[in-house]
Amino acid sequence: MTRASENLREGRAALDVRGQRRSAQLRIDGAAVRALNTAKSRLVVGALLFAAAFFAVTVRLVDVGVMTSTAPSAGSPASGATSVALRGDVFDRNGLLLATSLPTWSLFARPKNVGDIDEAVNKLARILQGATAADLRAKLTSKSPFVWLRRHLSPSEQAAVHGLGLPWLDFQVEQRRVYPHGSAASHVIGFGNIDGDGLAGLELSLNARLEHGEAVTSSIDLRLQTILREELAAQIGKFRALGGAAVVMDARNGEVIAMVSLPDFDANDPGAADANARFSRATLGVYELGSVFKVFTLATALDAGTTNFRRCYDVGHPLMFAGKSIADFHPGKGCMSVPGIFGESSNIGAARIALEYGSDVQRRYLKQFGLLSATGVELSEIGLPMFPSTWREVNTATVAFGHGVAVSPLQFTASVAAIINGGILRTPTLVKQNPMALRPGVRVISEDSSDKMRRLFRYVVTNGTAKLASVKGYVVGGKTGTAEKIENGHYKKNANISSFVGAFPINAPRYVVYALIDEPKGLKETAFYATGGWTAAPMVGRVIARIAPLLGIAPQDETAPEVLRALAIDQEKAGPRLAAN
Fold first, then answer.
1. Which one, out of 19, 121, 291, 335, has a CA that is 20 to 30 A from the CA of 230?
2. Could you say which of 20, 35, 67 is where a domain stops?
């Protein structure tokens, strides 16, 4: 073998050795890289898992600490609830809040676990406003396993108690009912007890829905409610009356848009009010309403076909029953037509009309008008109507002008709505209705009879006892009424229920407004009269003037031919005209 061949073999051997070394080194480097990558991947996965766990803990802390509005308890955190299902809200028809619930903290203790009684009493008495040392000591030494020390703490009280660091005190999350508008609709919305259960008003009647968290939209319009309350309060004050009630109702569907009873109370503190303030004159009170009841007398006669606008009745002589007479406030002379009897509010004329159709017909119509049974509105505070057990001829005569049957203002308003809306009686409601699903009603008089009653309503305002209810541009119609109050089974002289029911626009009725004033006193400016035409009629007129624009009712020309035609009435035998009595 030549030297060159040997050198060639040695060179190849050296190359093989270096190749093997490089290959080995590459294998070592590849393994290191793979190990490093694996470690990095594991670190990333671990970091992600740690981050996820941290995020879950954070979310839970936020949920417990913020979303459920909790605070650290001074005792075992497991001993008190940390959340509460809030009672449903109540809104007005436009979405304004009328009633809501706020989470609050209540303080309790387990007496057997209490440490230093004297220390606890002294410290808590300084924090809990109104709590006496004797009361706290009695509770903390009680044999009971559980005692409330204060329900619904204020935030400052809760913080101060928590700061004491007493391990045997604990908190319970509860809810407190709040009424943002106080007394504005207290008889409608009602109130609840300290545990949140409804005790009155919609809070009671809709308790099952509200306690499950369901929100309720009432039919009440807070704007109109405020106006109605202001005007009623002003008139009660002006005439030094005992109180009153007022209702605004949608004649088309029975929705109660506003309803007030005065005096009233702050729904946030009903316990501070007396029984008189908590009594709802609008729904629980039943009253003989006087001449406004002539609405039903005339509607019955016109619908039964026993009279018409041209019939004439003798009002010049009182009617006698068992030695007692039925007379008129302002005696008339001779014969008076139906429009005259209604417009001048003749008791004699109304009684003669009713006696003509008789007791059976009167009772049957009053029943179908919904006046002889309880009103089916969403309230438990409903007064039962009062009426004769035996319906004699004298009862027929007195009921014709509003004595002998007693009903609530709400019940009366719903029945009047049926008289002027085309003849359909609908159950009044305090819950906003679906306009696309109008509740069915019951026909109680014909459309023709309803049309005639609208004409009579207008006549009372233009020519009769309710001129002070007139509102320019809103074509008001209505009927006045004044009735002596009953006390101990006897009528009380100079103690009247004065009222007025109005509807507008009476040529195409949309809303009915009724106002009742309890025992108004006459004034010099009213010639010392305190009848419905002087007290309630002008108030209803002011209410209509204020609420009509809010309800979207455009003014109209009351002298326009189409308006006059819709309300035309034969005045040939309307009889003498009397001013606002």
1. 291
2. 67
